[in-house]
Write a structure and sequence with these properties.
By secondary structure, the chain is mostly helical. Helix content is about 60%, strand content about 5%. The protein has 26 helices and 9 strands. The longest helix is centred in the middle third of the chain and has 32 residues, at about 220-255. About 40% of the residues are buried.
């Protein structure tokens, strides 16, 4: 009943939305605890779409038409995504950006509901669109406040907040239907005191009560499709992500799998069928799903009985809420909106010193607050996609150096280290730029991404290097560029490989800005560690061929370390191995073996204090290669000669 005011549709259509889609989802959905029906976020998105498509004084039939078309298009979009098994797209939107948008949308809801809570009256044609103007408009109309309405809504909000607080401490309190209780109390008080005669607006007679909508196809035209396709995509995306949060949360808690593709099909079908009965887009409600889980829901029969009770309400129970005060409904929506403001996430990012995430959340929040819901959605989706593209198109690459006098090699970049001594997982090792550049200019330490991945307490290499003993210092090998790749190389990130290798060759680190002058002496060899590269597609193989041709033309030796059989086969078919080492093969199982080979043939000079450890590594590696049947005889003989010559 209350969400119908947010969506801008008649009350009966909100009730239809709480019945038809829920019944369909019960038959097709996976998540048992999911409560499908109207919710605050989807309702305000629908209301914003209707407001953008129609004037404020548009007829109710026109608003219902737009709402049902949004349900139809959202259902078709979701069904198509599920049919083509694109459920993984729910990971595209940044959680941080989405939280910023949801918090801003909740604040807009709070300000809009203040008029209902305070009982102020105004001309809808004069109501502004932007948040700042709405706030100013609210203050200008405070003098028209109805104290009875304000008292009723205030007590409603305080009661619901108190019950929520007690519910966190005492589990039995959660079983009390606080919203239903507050509706009954306010309705009885309003009827007994005849508050409707003192300026308190009530629900009154609901047109269409006691009858159900006749099934009819929404009238979709080409003009409507062009105008509503964008909002439908956004509503479907946000709603599906919210539903998947519910599904994954309770699926994990109760030990059952929730398939994103099946959820897409279920939600798509629910919205598609519902659009024929006058509904607007609907998805899983996080708040009602939490209530269902607390009440002990374990099967889909709970959803079936909820739909049955909603049908009884549509036909017979609406006269009982004739005196339901609108300020009470506004207080309920106000309370629901407060739960959407994500202060916990902000506190979490602050504890982790995740400045990048805080800036992203602030950007999304400000776009939504100052430019409107539509701008906030575009900002959230746009920046999320850009972040995905950015991290996808930059291969994870780092320069390795030698740890003291040992045969171990670790990342030279001052970034958090992983458990194996190499650069930690998820570290993209590119230059300071974008949001990282912003935080750097502000003088903020970059603790965002690594901290969010559970390494908040790991000391950076830069600070740890000052505390290391001399035999633990990480130093690059003179004349050799040792490059470690940690991700799949494919068409999206392969094109960046040439520029990154050139930058590493000239600057020695990805943390040096490209505008710096050449800091590194010419190299004699390049060692590619491909241990953590699972696969390379054809486009990336072509790029590797170009890279090897460039190094070969300059007389730079190329060596591959820990290359797997599938990549070796592709390199052999592409002619890369022949280009690098003629008809033989030149790849090793350890970096120390590759360096021993280069020193044996005079490609690089011996480092002080490093000869003995390299010799031991070469000899142990030689024994392993001799025992392994997978290494060709010619390669084993060559390495035995190399080790024999050093001895």
């Amino acid at each position: 009943l209350a969400y119908s005011t947010l969506a801008g549709v008649p009350t009966m259509n909100a009730l239809y939305t709480a019945f038809s889609p829920l019944l369909v989802y019960v038959m097709l959905g996976v998540c048992v605890q999911a409560s499908v029906g109207p919710d605050a976020l989807t309702s305000i998105l629908v209301g914003a779409s209707i407001g953008a498509a129609l004037p404020p004084d548009a007829a109710a039939e026109e608003k219902v038409k737009i709402a049902t078309l949004l349900a139809l298009l959202s259902g078709l979009i979701l069904f198509a995504l599920g049919f083509f098994r694109l459920g993984f797209l729910d990971n595209m939107l940044s959680r941080t950006m989405l939280r910023g948008f949801v918090s801003a949308a909740a604040l807009i809801i709070v300000v809009e509901q203040m008029h209902t809570c305070l009982g102020t009256s105004y001309d809808p044609d004069e109501y502004p669109d932007l948040f700042v103007d709405k706030l100013r408009f609210l203050f200008d109309h405070l003098k028209h406040t109805n104290w009875r309405a304000a008292l009723m809504s205030g007590l409603t909000i305080v009661f619901l907040l108190t019950m929520n607080f007690l519910g966190k401490r005492y589990k039995r309190v959660k079983l009390v239907p606080s919203i239903l209780l507050v509706v009954v109390i306010n309705t009885v008080v309003c009827w007994a005191a005849k508050l409707n005669e003192h300026g308190v607006i009530i629900l009154g007679h609901v047109p269409g009560a006691g009858s159900f909508a006749k099934p009819a196809a929404p009238p979709l035209s080409l003009a409507d499709l062009k105008e509503l396709l964008g909002p439908a995509v956004i509503i479907a995306t946000v709603g599906f992500i919210e539903s998947m949060v519910v599904g994954k949360t309770y699926g994990s808690k109760h030990k059952y799998m929730v398939s994103p593709n099946r959820e897409l099909v279920a939600l798509g079908t629910a919205n598609f069928v519902g659009s024929f009965f006058g509904t607007y887009p609907t998805f899983s409600s996080m708040s009602r799903s939490a209530v269902a889980e607390t009440a002990g829901v374990r099967t889909h029969l709970a959803g079936f009985f909820a739909a049955l009770l909603m049908l009884i309400t549509i036909f017979w129970a609406l006269p009982a809420v004739h005196y339901l005060p609108r300020p009470c409904m506004g207080g309920i929506v106000f309370y629901a909106a407060l739960h959407l403001i994500e202060l916990e996430d902000l506190a979490f990012y602050w504890r982790l010193r995740a400045w990048t995430e805080m800036i992203l959340m602030l950007v999304s929040f400000c776009f939504t607050i100052f430019l409107g819901i539509e701008a906030g959605i575009l900002c959230t989706v746009g920046i999320s996609v850009l972040l995905v593209v950015k991290h996808t198109t930059l291969p994870q690459i780092s320069v390795l150096g030698r740890v003291g006098r040992t045969s171990k090699y670790r990342s030279c970049d001052p970034e958090p280290a992983g458990h194996d001594g190499t650069a930690g997982p998820g570290h993209h090792r590119h230059s300071v730029g974008g949001l990282a550049g912003i935080t750097a200019m502000l003088g903020i330490d970059q603790a965002g991404e690594p901290a969010a991945r559970g390494r908040a307490h790991t000391s950076p290499n830069g600070a740890a290097a000052r505390r290391r003993r001399p035999d633990e210092q990480i130093k690059p090998v003179d004349g050799v560029l040792i490059v470690k790749l940690d991700s799949k190389i494919f068409f999206a990130n392969g094109n960046s490989l040439i520029d990154l290798l050139r930058r590493l060759e000239q600057l020695g680190s990805m943390n040096v800005h490209p505008s710096e002058t050449n800091l590194m002496p010419p190299i004699a060899a390049v060692v590619f560690n491909l241990k953590h590269v699972p696969d390379i597609d054809a486009s990336a193989v072509q790029i590797f061929h170009e890279v090897c041709e460039d190094y070969h033309s300059r007389g730079v030796e190329i060596i591959f370390v820990q290359i797997n059989e599938s990549i070796r086969w592709k390199f052999e078919r592409a002619g890369i191995l022949e280009l690098v080492c003629g008809k033989g093969e030149l790849d090793f199982h350890r970096i120390s073996e590759a360096l021993s080979y280069l020193r044996r043939f005079g490609r690089i000079r011996h480092s002080s204090g490093s000869f003995s450890s390299d010799r031991a590594s070469a000899e142990s590696g030689e024994r392993r290669h001799t025992e392994s049947s997978s290494i060709p005889t010619s390669l084993s003989s060559e390495r035995r000669l190399s080790a024999s010559g050093m001895v």
